[in-house]
Design a protein that fits this description.
21% of the residues lie in helices and 37% in strands. It is an alpha+beta fold. It is flat and about 65 Å long.
Length: 349
């Protein structure tokens, strides 16, 4: 019987490795419960293909008198519950677990559309537009049906505009919402900004129309590097994606997103995208917009920076306390350390 138990545990691991190897982008929380000669598979997965393979392979088990597949495919919801949500606050923290004391793993900005996988009290496990999964408190979002959520994304009530830092003001001049970088609002025929919670207001600050974004922010490495200067001096914040605080991969992701190129959330995920390039002697062959990756811990990429041309880089780092520039060929102790832990460079566009 011990061998049979080991076989089913190996089965679960094989399905996880094939369909949901990264818990940041896929849920596969499956446990095996053994009672005598009966085995039950319990838990959740966000991956339908994982559930299908698990179901097929459990049906082939012959060493057990009874085999029960009770794994539920997410989203988990009653028929009357909605599984789409829009972020209604300026920034919604995404936590590693359903508790305020949990670690922030990322953020979702106003107007982002989320898929709600499951609920635990007032906490919602959500998948963001970039595929990243985290727990968001219900106070930061408005639940919608799929039609309303898609309508918001497409600008059914007007034109979609992207924030580069703006405020939405009420008729009395009071701030209704402070819009972070990459927040989405809809502007109606009168030029008023419609927020995802239904409120409207006047705009103070910089917005760009989504439809014309490529004109001012093309998917070009030099243009991305030029935009990065706007982030100079922003403090470092683990899991951050806004000018209120940002981490290394959040900065790179936010910049490329504005320029119409989607990147994964974390530096190790980003390090597997694009095309590898040779940096050349003293990093002189790097182009503006190329990404440099580093291993602060052995065996795993943990940091990313962007070249602004050759060895000159901009990045959000603890070593600088925020967003700052460094020279990969420089003599400062921190710059020597960056050279020591450098892994490789990749070109995104």
């Amino acid at each position: 019987m011990r061998a049979a138990v080991e076989d089913v545990q190996l089965l679960v691991q094989e399905v996880r490795d094939r369909h949901a190897p990264d818990p940041r982008t896929a849920v596969f929380e499956v446990e095996v419960e053994v009672r005598g000669d009966a085995v039950t598979f319990l838990g959740f997965t966000s991956e339908p293909d994982a559930a299908l393979e698990l179901h097929r392979r459990t049906a082939e088990l012959t060493a057990w008198r009874e085999v029960v597949d009770a794994v539920q495919v997410l989203p988990e919801a009653h028929p009357e519950e909605m599984v789409h949500a829009l972020v209604t606050s300026a920034v919604a923290p995404m936590m590693g677990g359903p508790a305020v004391r949990s670690t922030q793993v990322s953020q979702a900005v106003l107007g982002s559309r989320l898929i709600v996988f499951r609920r635990e009290g007032r906490w919602l496990q959500c998948k963001g537009p970039d595929g990243y999964i985290g727990w968001i408190h219900a106070g930061y979002v408005a639940l919608k049906d799929e039609t309303a959520a898609r309508g918001w994304e497409l600008g059914a009530d007007g034109d979609v505009w992207i924030s580069l830092g703006a405020d939405v003001l009420g008729d009395d001049g009071e701030v209704l919402m402070r819009l972070p970088w990459n927040a989405r609002v809809v502007r109606d025929a009168e030029g008023l900004a419609l927020l995802p919670d239904g409120r409207k207001g006047h705009v103070r600050g910089e917005l760009v129309p989504l439809g014309a974004r490529a004109l001012g922010f093309p998917a070009d490495g030099t243009a991305v590097a030029e935009t990065s200067a706007r982030w100079m001096g922003v403090p470092y914040l683990w899991g951050g994606v806004t000018m209120g605080g940002v981490d290394c991969s959040g900065l790179v992701q936010a910049l490329y997103k504005l320029h119409g190129h989607a990147l994964p959330r974390d530096s190790d995920q980003q390090s597997r995208t694009g095309a590898e390039v040779e940096p050349g002697e003293d990093f002189a062959d790097l182009r503006a917009g190329d990404l440099l990756f580093f291993a602060e811990e052995p065996g795993r990429c943990t940091h990313v920076a962007m070249s602004t041309g050759g060895p000159n880089i901009i990045h959000a780092s603890l070593g600088n306390g925020g967003v700052a520039r460094n020279d990969m060929a420089g003599r400062r102790s921190y710059e020597r350390e960056l050279r020591r832990i450098f892994l490789w460079a990749r070109r995104m566009v």
